[in-house]
Amino acid sequence: MSIDEQVLNYPIPAAAPLDPPAEWAELRGECPVAHVRLPSGDQATLLTRYDDVKQVLADPRLTRQLSAPDAARLSADGGGVFNSEVSQIIPDSGADHLRWRRLVGRWFTAKRMAALRPQMARIADELIDAMVERGAPGDLRAGLGFPLPVYVICDMLGVPAEDRDRFSYWSDTLLNLTRYSREEIEVAQTEFFAYMSGHVSAKRDQPGDDLLSELIAAGGPDEGGLSDLQILVTGMALLVAGHETTANMIGKMVSMLLADRGRWEALLADPALVRTAVEETLRLDANSGFGLPRYLPVETEVGGTVLPKGTTVICSMAAANRDESAFEAAAEMDLTRSPNPHLSFGSGAHSCLGQSLARTELQVVLEVLLRRLPGLELAVPVAELERVEGLAVGGLRTVPVRW
């Protein structure tokens, strides 16, 4: 049976931790609008070509909220970051969405990120000090990749970073595909909601110089601000998004650069390549997770195929980022590639609000590692790296390194 006649199980497994599934290239070539079965058993449509993914992500009519009765459920136990009631509280279209992005986006400008760089570098240096003190081999994910973005986002939200292990667990349950039961998810989300509710109340009583205090000070919806519930859920969403994806990407980025020693040597020889190297690892990341779902409230034509109203589409940005029609030598890592219009942060009105934060953290981590640990290498063969399984985000369980 040819690939265009199959209903593939999704996510599609890959043979190696840093490599893409072979099916991506086949799908782009033969079946760019494919039928897939999700972990819930529901069916959806998978897009793998650059132009198609960009079109759907940039279409303001299409929603990320899978709350319609005929929308696909991602996981069998429901809930999760796209299907849950919580996901409907932050507006995802129209004037309300623009207001939310304007209010929150002030904290994620390039200017503000530039001001944060020295603090990020200081945190990275301290974390590397602790890794070196513990001795090699060490786990780069646990020692640096996970704590650095947590410290930064906790500082921005005015949340105590010592609660980071709880945040991590709560985040994982929100990003569940197959790892947790419905009961575990409900308990964790209730705990997370209660925690953030208490935190927002405390900020109302004693404001600080942080994002949540600023949102509270902006007043309610009648004054051009957000409702109490929207502020609370914004805090939850930023805590999840602000550490989980970047923590995973730090581990994957370093692994991709160390997988071929020539790449690391090129960066040591010319640290000015750090910016383009970060973008290229974002583009080539084959283990980015589920992709972005979109629900079609109207009939939509994509890639020459008419998709009926009620279709749930999965946009695989990682597959699209390897499309030969969009990138020359798309399967090759080119540390000097510029421009690099990858779709790793989405496209259009819903593109990732925190992309300047993620970029800055990745650049700073790479700069500090090159300066502090030039002899860094993987402590296990690439093939022995283990993927994170059962969550909507992709990553590596550990990144064993020596120096």
Automatic annotation (TrEMBL):
InterPro entries linked: Cyt_P450, Cyt_P450_B, Cyt_P450_CS, Cyt_P450_sf
GO molecular function, one term: monooxygenase activity
Presence of the UniProt keyword S-adenosyl-L-methionine in the record: no
Co-factor(s): heme
Keywords: Heme, Iron, Metal-binding, Monooxygenase, Oxidoreductase
One family name in Pfam for this protein: p450
Keyword Phosphoprotein attributed: no
Similarity-based family: Belongs to the cytochrome P450 family.
PANTHER family: CYTOCHROME P450 BJ-1 (PTHR46696:SF5), P450, PUTATIVE (EUROFUNG)-RELATED (PTHR46696)
Name by which UniProt lists this protein: Cytochrome P450
Organism whose genome encodes this protein: Nonomuraea fuscirosea
